[in-house]
Design goal:
This protein is an alpha+beta fold. The protein folds into two domains: about 180 residues, no CATH class; about 130 residues, 2-Layer Sandwich (Heat Shock Protein 90). The chain has a five-stranded mixed beta sheet with strand order 1-2-3-5-4, with helices on one face. Strand 2 and strand 3 form a beta hairpin. Helix 7 packs antiparallel against helix 9 and helix 12 runs antiparallel to helix 13. The longest helix has about 80 residues.
Length: about 425
C-alpha cells in the first residue's frame, strides 16, 4: 500500500475514534437525496421550533433560538456523527422542556417540535450506529422528560402531562424501530449485492477457464500434432533417406531441434491454459543470454548482423520480464524477415538512452520470392505490441526506401535500474 493510502487509513481511523463517520449514507444519487432531505428537515425544525418556544412556551428569545438551532443541528449530525447527535439531542430537548412553561395549556413537558426533532434524530442515528446507541438515547430522553414533569415546581394537569409523555415515548420508539429496520434492510441489500457480484466474478472466471481449455485443445490438435510430425520427420531424415549429404542432414537436425524447442514452450503454454492453478513444471523462459543462439539459428536462413550492445545494470540483467521481451522481439522480427523477405540481409541494432532501451531490426530486399501464406495473416506484431504495452514500451514499423522493412522497439528503463 502507498504512503498516501496508509495516511488515509490513519485519518479515517482517527475520525472514527472521534465518532465521525464517512458522509456516504446511501449508494449513488440516493446519498445526495438523503442529505438534502436532512438539511431541509433541520431548517424547517429551526423555523418552527424557535417561534413556538417563544410564543407558546414563554422561553426567552435567545434560549429558544439557540436550543432550536442545536436541535436542528442534531438532525444533520445523525448522518455522520450519531453519538454526538444523540448527546446534542438529549441536551437540547431536556433544556427546552426545563425552560418551557407548564401553564400555557400546550403539550408539556415535551413540545411537539421536540417530539418531531427526536423522531428524525433517532431514525438517522439508528441507521448509522449500533442498535444500543438510539435505544439508549431514546430511554434517556423519556427518563429525562419524566423527571422534568415530576420535579417541575409548577404542576400542570397530570393527565395531560402523562398523555404527552406517552405520545412522546411511543412516537420516538417507533422512530428507533423504523431506523433499525431501514439499517437492517440496507445491510441485507448490500450483502446481496456483494454475493451477486461474487457470483458474477466466479461465473466469469469459470467461463474464462472453459475458454482457455477450449483454446488449449485446439492448439494441441492443430499445432502440437503438426509440430510433432515435423520434428519426427526431420529427426529421422538421415535414416530414411540414404546417401543424404552431411550439410543437408545437419539442416534437418536443426529443423528437428527448433521443433523440439517450440514443442517444449507449447507444452508449458498448454499447461497454463488447461489449469492456471496447477503446479505446472515450467521450462525456463528464454532471456538475454539466449539471444546469441537465436541469431545463430536465424543466420542459417539469411545473413544476420548485430551492432551495438546494451549496458545494463545488475537489476536489469536479472529482470526476467525484460529478458523475455527482448528475446521475443528479436525472435518475431527475424521470423518476419525469414517469412516475408527470404534471403534478405538483416541487422539487429541495440540502442540505449538514459530513459529507454531500443531494438531496431532492419532487413534489405529479399533475394527470392516469399512462400505463399497458409492463412490470412499472423498475430506476431499485435502480440509484440501487447507485450510491450504492459511495460510502457512502443512498437513501430516502417517500410524503407530501398524496399526493405524496419522494426523499432522502445522499452522504458524507469523503475528497472
Amino acid at each position: 500500500m502507498s504512503v498516501e493510502g496508509q495516511q488515509d487509513l490513519r485519518r479515517s481511523a482517527l475520525w472514527r475514534r472521534l465518532g465521525i463517520l464517512p458522509p456516504r449514507v446511501a449508494p449513488g444519487r440516493a446519498n445526495l437525496v438523503v442529505w438534502a432531505l436532512a438539511i431541509a428537515c433541520a431548517l424547517t425544525q429551526l423555523a418552527v421550533a424557535a417561534p413556538l418556544g417563544v410564543t407558546l412556551y414563554r422561553i426567552p428569545v435567545a434560549g429558544a433560538l439557540i436550543l432550536s438551532l442545536v436541535q436542528a443541528a442534531a438532525i444533520v449530525l445523525a448522518l455522520f456523527a450519531p453519538a454526538w447527535a444523540t448527546v446534542v439531542a438529549l441536551i437540547a430537548g431536556n433544556a427546552l422542556a426545563g425552560l418551557a412553561s407548564a401553564e400555557t395549556g400546550a403539550p408539556w413537558p415535551v413540545a411537539a417540535s421536540t417530539t418531531v426533532a427526536n423522531t428524525l434524530v433517532w431514525i438517522g442515528v439508528a441507521q448509522r450506529a449500533r442498535w444500543w446507541v438510539p435505544a439508549g438515547g431514546w430511554a434517556l430522553s423519556v427518563l429525562c422528560a419524566v423527571m422534568v414533569a415530576v420535579e417541575s415546581p409548577v404542576r400542570s394537569d397530570d393527565g395531560a402531562a402523562i398523555a404527552d409523555l406517552i405520545v412522546f415515548a411511543a412516537v420516538t420508539l417507533g422512530a428507533v424501530l423504523v431506523g433499525l429496520g431501514i439499517r437492517n434492510w440496507s445491510l441485507l441489500r448490500a450483502q446481496l449485492r456483494a454475493e451477486r457480484a461474487a457470483t458474477a466474478v466466479e461465473l466469469a472466471r469459470r467461463e474464462a477457464v472453459e475458454d482457455k481449455a477450449r483454446i488449449a485443445r485446439e492448439l494441441h490438435d492443430v499445432v502440437a500434432h503438426g509440430m510433432s510430425a515435423i520434428q519426427v520427420r526431420a529427426a529421422s531424415a538421415r535414416y530414411r533417406i540414404p546417401g543424404l549429404d552431411d550439410e543437408v542432414a545437419a539442416e534437418f537436425d536443426e529443423v528437428a531441434s527448433t521443433a523440439r524447442s517450440a514443442m517444449k514452450e507449447m507444452r508449458v503454454i498448454l499447461g497454463l491454459l488447461r489449469d492456471e492453478d496447477a503446479d505446472v513444471e515450467h521450462a525456463p523462459q528464454p532471456g538475454l543470454a539466449d539471444i546469441p543462439g537465436l541469431l545463430a539459428r536465424a543466420g542459417d536462413l539469411g545473413p544476420v548482423a548485430e551492432r551495438g550492445a546494451w549496458r545494463l545494470t545488475e537489476d536489469e540483467r536479472q529482470d526476467p520480464i525484460l529478458g523475455l521481451a527482448a528475446y521475443r522481439v528479436v525472435q518475431e522480427g527475424l521470423s518476419n524477415v525469414a517469412r516475408h523477405a527470404p534471403g534478405a540481409a538483416a541487422e539487429v541494432v541495440w540502442t540505449q538512452a538514459p530513459g529507454e532501451l531500443g531494438i531496431d531490426i532492419r532487413n534489405g530486399v529479399p533475394t527470392r520470392p516469399a512462400a505463399p501464406r497458409a492463412d490470412g495473416g499472423g498475430h506476431g506484431l499485435r502480440g509484440m505490441r501487447e507485450r510491450l504495452a504492459t511495460m510502457g514500451g512502443t512498437v513501430q514499423t516502417a517500410a524503407q526506401e530501398d524496399g526493405g522493412f524496419a522494426l523499432h522497439v522502445r522499452i522504458p528503463r524507469e523503475g528497472r535500474g
